[in-house]
């Protein structure tokens, strides 16, 4: 497990975007070799998506041979609703890059048979060869995707009832009206994400600091589902300084020291053509 600490949200977003770009370029995707990427929604990944769009427009990165699988989608919200995750992904990312729409997979929260939709999603991931890099974010209560506190740590894609804390947090996207916030969602399971060859989790802001503490300084606990990724062989937590406020000083110093070693010897971020 790695913890990468950057000074602020913008630098954390840029680091994450460069890491994703690096992984895709190193993979050398082609017509018979697609890179498979798991993607989140929410406010945290927006800066990362903006940077990826920038790299694409500058000619540094193509998504032509990339397949994506999104973490979740609300149940009962029309696909064209401005707050659906279909709308979020197309408006904030997909329409700005060269991905084939047939390769961008998002759960259908309006499917006639929701369990069949979840099973089909798992099958599509398997048929794609599994996920090379799953990018995720977390809620203040440490949930990843919509795997709310108490979720099974070996769970698969399924229908979930949202916790009240999640509904309250999402009310800002629905004019503050709790009655408009969906109460159920389809979500990949913790086990689904754990199956990815690599996982990168974005955690920014002081309001996520206690969740980061629970994720890396305490044991694995189904009440903090993000903590499961302590047991993944290749997990990277990318955070800003504000998110480290609940961590022990020695923990922060330890991981900052490792960053210098990794950046110099193991996994330097790719160099852009413009030298940045």
Automatic annotation (TrEMBL):
Its EC number is 3.5.99.6. InterPro entries: Glc/Gal-6P_isomerase, Glucosamine6P_isomerase, Glucosamine6P_isomerase_CS, NagB/RpiA_transferase-like. Keywords: Carbohydrate metabolism, Coiled coil, Cytoplasm, Hydrolase, Isomerase. GO terms for molecular function: glucosamine-6-phosphate deaminase activity; identical protein binding; isomerase activity. It catalyses: alpha-D-glucosamine 6-phosphate + H2O = beta-D-fructose 6-phosphate + NH4(+). Pfam families: Glucosamine_iso. Pathway: Nucleotide-sugar biosynthesis; UDP-N-acetyl-alpha-D-glucosamine biosynthesis; alpha-D-glucosamine 6-phosphate from D-fructose 6-phosphate: step 1/1. It is an enzyme of class 3 (hydrolase). It comes from the Eukaryota. It is found in: Cytoplasm. Residues 15-232 form the Glucosamine/galactosamine-6-phosphate isomerase domain. Belongs to the glucosamine/galactosamine-6-phosphate isomerase family. PANTHER family: GLUCOSAMINE-6-PHOSPHATE ISOMERASE, GLUCOSAMINE-6-PHOSPHATE ISOMERASE 2. This is Glucosamine-6-phosphate isomerase. It comes from Pongo abelii.
